[in-house]
Amino acid sequence: MLAVIYILSTCIIGAYCDCPYGFTAHGDSCYLIVGLNSTWIEAKKYCDVMGGDLAVVESSEEEIYLVNLLKQIDATGRIFPENYWLDGTDVVKEGEFRWMGKNGNSIPISGYTNWAPGQPDNAAVHENCLEIRYSFNILWNDLDCNTRQNFICEASNEWNGDTIIG
Q: Residue 2, by phi and psi: left (phi above 0), alpha (psi -120 to 50) or beta?
């Protein structure tokens, strides 16, 4: 009975539940907020094992949804620090942030962005990974990829165990 309640609470009635376990469906994607302090590459590997990749934010609507999820989590006080890795990095070419995807596939971050004022700034010359930073009003920032913090995974809501985004 609990399984039925869970399925109905996470899926649109009449649609298949096509998110990996633990992810929440929204639009064409599924999201998982992970409170596990990890480097950017560790976070990327974790998301891969879970059936997705680090989140790619491509619209203000998508970001508003994620920010609302983060605010709900923040209200519980269960996750700290309140900064989250996303999939972007400029490790390939300094100053050119890209969504990295999987298997070496990457695309430049263009169109929608939500950088904090003055960001990205490559402070300390080693800030190559993209985060959402609470102390910057939940805006984007570049940070050293070896910093340990939380992260957001994303998967396609057409996930079938074999097909994932990236």
A: alpha
CA distance 25 to 134: 23
pTM over 0.70: yes
Q: What is the CATH number of the domain that holds 36?
A: 3.10.100.10
- pLDDT class of 7 with cuts at 50, 70, 90: very low
User: Does pLDDT of 17 surpass 70?
Assistant: no
Q: Give residue-wise pLDDT tens across range 102-150.
A: 887 899 999 999 999 999 999 988 999 999 998 899 999 999 999 999 9
> Can you give the chain as a three-state secondary structure string?
CHHHHHHHHHCCCCCCCCCCCCCEEECCEEEEEEEEEECHHHHHHHHHHHCCEECCCCCHHHHHHHHHHHHHHHHHCCCCCCEEEEEEECCCCCCCCEECCCCCCCEECCCCCCECCCCCCCHHHCEEEEEEEHHHCCEEEEEECCCCEEEEEEEECCCCCCCCCC
Phi/psi of residue 62, each to 5°? -65, -45
Query: What domain range includes position 141?
Result: 15-156
Number of structural domains in the chain: 1
